[in-house]
Protein 1
Amino acid sequence: MHKAPPVKSGIVALIGPPNVGKSTLLNSLLGQKISIVSPKPQTTRNRIVGVVNGPEYQIVLLDTPGIHQARDPLNLEMVKIALATLAEVDAVVFMVDVTMPLPGKTPPAYLPQEGRPTVLVINKIDTVAKDRLLPIITAYQHLYPFTAVLPISAMTGDGTALLIEELCRLLPVGPRLYPEEMPTDATERFIVAEMIREKIFLKARDEVPYSTAVTVESFKEDEAKGLTTIHATIIVEKDSQKGIIIGKGGAMLKAIGQAARRDIEELLDQKVLLKLWVKVEKNWTKNPRMLKELGF
Ligand SMILES: Nc1nc2c(ncn2[C@@H]2O[C@H](COP(=O)(O)OP(=O)(O)OP(=O)(O)O)[C@@H](O)[C@H]2O)c(=O)[nH]1
Ligand SMILES: [Mg+2]
């Protein structure tokens, strides 16, 4: 009788400094957008599950907030989420990018001390000439005993197949942890709120994206009309920020809504009516009660 080959399956943390391309890699491996991406650091604020399936493997990738020197309560929570992820995984992907300064002599204290496979991924190789890579690879090889060092471009997909191969080698044989048709455990409401937040990261400047949170108030699907109506609130910290988000004659809010609606329609595969409100919650990023209410 034909016997199916054993499946390799396990949980892998995707960690590293902000802005190196962790969420871009998650989306690229999934073939769909689950985790939001922007050119600004500290875009991701939560742990985001992406389940990558192949005929003989299932890699449960955990995208995390970028690890940085945090000061205010929101950022401290974000870093805590990233570090806590390390406790529950079979392997770690530590991501850096070629635009960062070369590492010094001391590896980040949060890299596993022993026993846990840790793969270094050097991202954004599409932005440098090939001959610039070798010194970067060597510097990291001297930094820490990485299980493997893989240069990739999350944007073009260059090198990502090798990363999958390497992770399959490292993961244990075992049953799939998630159904194959389930790319994430994030709710549609969460992803919708994130997509709105992403547009604010892309369109607003200075501190405004960092003072913004989004909550989805209601989500109603009219099957007969093939239309989902979504009401969401954009929370800011100050009246002046509310003015910026709304913009001249409401132009900014309209642009945020239009861009988010396009992404949400693709996610839900349905027409969407998106209604946005802007609300001021004074200093919510520093208020433990508000942070808890917003899921931190
Ligand atoms: N050129 C190039 N740009 C990339 C690549 N991967 C990601 N980027 C860009 O780098 C920026 C940051 O990408 P993200 O995926 O949001 O980075 P992140 O590590 O998740 O960032 P945080 O969530 O803030 O920690 C975005 O502008 C991406 O388009 C790549 O392989 N090549
Ligand atoms: Mg991210």
Note: The helical segments are 22-30, 73-85, 133-143, 160-170, 188-203, 239-246, 251-268, 288-293.
Protein 2
Amino acid sequence: MQISGHEVIIAGGGPTGLMLAGELALAGVDVAIVEKRLSRDVEGSRAGGLHPRAIELLDQRGIAGRFALQGKKHYVVPFPGVMLNGADRPSRHNYTLAIWQAEIEKGLAGWVCELAVPTYRGREVTDFSEDDNGVDIVLDNERMLRAQFLVGCDGGRSLVRKKAGIAFPGWDADISYLIFEADMSDQPPSGFRHGEKGIYAIGPHEDGKRFRGVVTEERLMSGGKPGHDELHRALVAAYDTDFGVHNVTWLSRFTDAARQADAYRKGRILLAGDAAHVHSPAGGQGLNTGLQDAVNLGWKLAQVIKGISPDSLLDTYHDERHPVGAALLKHTLAITALNRGDARTTALREMMAEVMPMDEPRKWYTALMSGLDVHYDLGEGHPLLGRRVPDLDITTGGGPTTVFTLLHDARPVLLNLSTSGDLDITGWGDRIKQVDATFEGVMKLPVIGVVETPSAILIRPDGHAAWTGAGQTNGLSAALEAWFGPPLGR
Ligand SMILES: Cc1cc2nc3c(=O)[nH]c(=O)nc-3n(C[C@H](O)[C@H](O)[C@H](O)COP(=O)(O)OP(=O)(O)OC[C@H]3O[C@@H](n4cnc5c(N)ncnc54)[C@H](O)[C@@H]3O)c2cc1C
């Protein structure tokens, strides 16, 4: 059996696996992807947009422009029964970018290719075993790879999760839907409808000829490949006609089942993206959350591999991302419930549609659905602590720049915004980029509003604030050590 090695193997080269591979490669880790698909084609449309925080993550690495040119910007956020204005979200990217998953994957794959990440394409992880020093990973029951860590980015049916024995508790499906792309002889009505069990819709495909639609099935179905008969039956049940549907180029089934891995890490095995959480596509959160998982995990894994941080840093990945996934599951269950068409749910939805446009709920919900509200619990302190640092326009000795530009190489930054004050990072200078800058504006955080600008901010490579200063350096050394390892020479 042939054996070769890498520091990290990622099972699955979907959006999550690609993002993680890029993050690890930027940090100088020897990472490889194993992807069972032979080509980059994505079956059907799947995800249809990037939300503000996901676009910000790409901007933090200097690659948002590759995606932004391809999609249309939408400044509203859908809630069952009402569209909410999200244009006042305090972000340079205060919009959803309408771009299909295939294009998102193509963009990420291009970046990963530039970073020279090898991909074992057309290969499947079929088994693995872990020992004290690493993981032996079996491809197609024949070839073996050795790595220090294996990350399962292998989607909702994750083999990595199952073989690692990580439980996947949650809610069984209550409703199943068929999603399709097809020709239709008769013109269907476009737009959303609320059926007894849930929402359904048909709309024109971008090619101007075909249609794309989602219909609720009358009875809960699971697994298996749905056939033309089932699509015909579901359309007739919903619309009294199948509109002469034919030439079906994509037909797939999804449900409202919601499940989450009870551990995102078990020893040398980690999970991210759909492998760690599945839920209904209502709210369009899956891919976006997977990208955020990857960016939270990448720098931590890199630091542990390089011996900068102790292994326990990896536990913070679960501690920070599991609550985000748990909240996501709850919100998609709520959206699915509110989309039912029975009289009582309709009354509730109409009531909520009155409440949600009010300022506070609107700001809360639009930030939530954008991923801009994520707050990791790093203790008491300035409201920015644990939250994502906004992309401030700052001026450094080199001229005007932005905070996100400082993060392009995925290294931690100590941003000194005060004119006085000596921030001593002796012992961490090899890891932390110290930048003196001025900032003239006001700092505004999603939902919270305007906050006092800290005198200094320690920014993690994922863009979250690990420490903030108020004219002094109390707690800075502790934060540096907690997140970026002990100082040199100790
Ligand atoms: C109809 C629909 C609409 C959606 N709409 C949205 C939306 O609007 N917004 C949004 O954010 N999300 C949406 N999603 C969800 C989104 O598609 C997923 O959340 C996203 O694809 C998850 O990315 P991932 O990389 O974690 O997993 P996947 O995309 O599932 O990628 C997993 C990869 O692993 C590979 N793989 C699997 N097993 C193995 C193995 N053993 N060895 C090697 N490779 C393996 C697979 O081939 C695949 O490429 C939608 C999903 C559906 C079905």
Note: The chain is about 30% helix and 30% strand.
